[in-house]
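Worked Example 4.2. Consider the chain below.
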Amino acid sequence: MLDVHAPDHEINGARDFFVHLFTITIGLLIALGLEAGVEALHHRSQRKEAETLIRREIRNNLNQLQEGAPVATTELHQMTAVLQGLQARAQSQPVTFNEKDFVFHEAPIQDAAWRTANSTGALTYMDYAEVERFSDAYKEQALLQTMEEQALEDYLELLPVLAHSGTPGVVSPEAAKEAIPSTRRVVAHLSGMLAVGAGTVGTYEEALK
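Applying the procedure from the previous section yields the following structure tokens:
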């Protein structure tokens, strides 16, 4: 808040009035300039901190996706084999299953830095092109997370297939038929996750330029 005080002596004539008015004006301009400067420094600090945290978060997510890609590929191959086995078992062919083939590794991706920067308004102080690259990366990331959640739901539907079988690894033809739709969805989601994951990696790399 800026305070303007009355003159400490009586104003005599127009000259004193304009001198006092000029003094007040200069004082106000200096105060406003200092306040704007402090605010600009604060915004600059906010922008730098938010940018650093977002870049660190994206880099960590990028490393996680790249390290997890081989695991996701293996899971896709396993579930494709499981689907083929279930289709054969549904035709009463002798097929046994391994519980390890029904394992799904969920790896949540972080977005706390992005959400915090958005909620505090720090994004408004960043370069527009940079924010756009960040936004594209997190949109792609959100799509990947959605597909991962859908795949997990379908995996959970498959667990009872083995859990309630009379003999470990042996599934009845009826249970196999029942499990085929969920298994197909898992395979589709895993395939989609690999494709979207590759796209997410690309947007991460673009955002970090």
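Helices lie at 13-90, 112-120, 128-163, 173-207. The CA atoms of residues 160 and 175 lie 9 Å apart. Compare this with Example 4.1 before moving on.
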